[in-house]
Amino acid sequence: MKTWHKLAVAIAFVLLAGVPWYGSDVLVQFGINALLLAVLAQGWNIIGGYTGYPSFGNSVFYGLGSYGVAIAMVQWHLPFEVGMLFGVLLAVAFALLLGVPVLRLRGHYFAIATLALAGVMSAIVSNIPLAGQNIGLVLPPLNDDRLFYGLALGLSCSPRSWSGGSRAAASASA
Fold first, then answer.
1. Among 92, 63, 87, which residue's Cα sits nearest to residue 75?
2. pLDDT tens, residue by residue, 42-72
3. Cβ–Cβ under 8 Å, residues 91 and 68
4. Do the beta carbons of residue 32 and residue 50 sit within 8 Å?
5. Could you give the CA distance from residue 73 to residue 82 in angstroms, rounded to a whole number?
6. CB-based contacts of 21: which residues, under 8 Å, 6+ apart?
7. Calpha distance 9→7 (Å, rounded)
8. Cβ–Cβ under 8 Å, residues 59 and 118
9. How far, in Å, CA of 60 to CA of 51, rounded?
10. Is pTM, for the whole model, over 0.85?
């Protein structure tokens, strides 16, 4: 990477990191949503772009992580930080339990399996009382937009998420 390119990326990161202090509430909320969608797009790019797998199940693990945080906070009355750790562990556990076997499938079978996984998990979560059944869970208000913006920015700018020029990305596409 050239020096001017590194400098431009550093300036862009500093400008993005400062949005919660100089931007309006609407801009901060938009930034949180945009950065989280960028994280989801990066995940899909790895599985769909580099490896060529047509995946429809990425939202399952995103949703399980979100529900893990919500269950820990609402049902078990744990703080947000503990809930976030539980959400990560829940998503990783299901990724290992369900994702690894599904990754052994190829082509259309993989696409159908991930689509079915999304439908089945939606039906299961809609019927579990712990997850609020069809109503869902109402989270306590956490009015710390700077925290959520920082978490979203950290996730979207992590070195592992932008692996486009790495050897891992090249070997995944081979």
1. 87
2. 888 888 888 888 889 888 999 999 999 999 9
3. yes
4. no
5. 8
6. 146
7. 5
8. yes
9. 19
10. no
